[in-house]
Every structure is written in structure tokens, then in C-alpha cells.
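Field reference: sequence -> structure
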Amino acid sequence: MSQGVEFNRLMLDMRAMQMEAMSQPKSAPAAQVSGSSFADMLGQAVNKVSDTQQASNQLASAFEIGKSGVDLTDVMISSQKASVSFQALTQVRNKLVQAYQDIMQMPV
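Structure field:
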């Protein structure tokens, strides 16, 4: 039974992340109108990924030292969230580099 509950919690987390990701593009034009630049948004994304990785590392360290209330499933979910967010950020970086290279190769 506990594996079913853990799976359901994982699915709820994934759905919440999906809803958050789907809602962000709709709010991006409003952020641009308010004067937020692309560099600011990218910096915030990098900071959020860094915070996610630090939280994951802290949770893993707490589990390793045997702190009460820290569950292995929480550690693994946190680790996977950090990994996925880092991979997404890497893909964004790759697309930005590719776009820059494409622009630089355009004839003037």
C-alpha cells in the first residue's frame, strides 16, 4: 500500500510541476511589459535551479546522517527534480548558443 501512496505523491508532484510549467509562458508577456528583461528571467531560472540542487543536497546529507523525519523517497524525488531542472536549463543554454551562432552566420 505504501508504494501506491508514494507513486500517487510522485504523480501529484509531477502534475503540479507540469501545471507550473504550463502557466509560466502565459505570464511571460506580462513580465516583459513590466520591464523585466530576458537576462533577468534567465538569471532567475539559474538561481532557481541552483536553489533546487542545494535543497536536494541538504536533504541527502540529512538522510545520510540519519536525521529523523527524512524519508528516502523524499531524497530521491528531490534529487530527480534537481536533475530534471538542470537538464532543462542545459537544453535552454544549448538552444541559446545555437541561436547566437545562427545569427552570427547570417549575411549582413
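Note: DSSP finds three helices and no strands in the chain.
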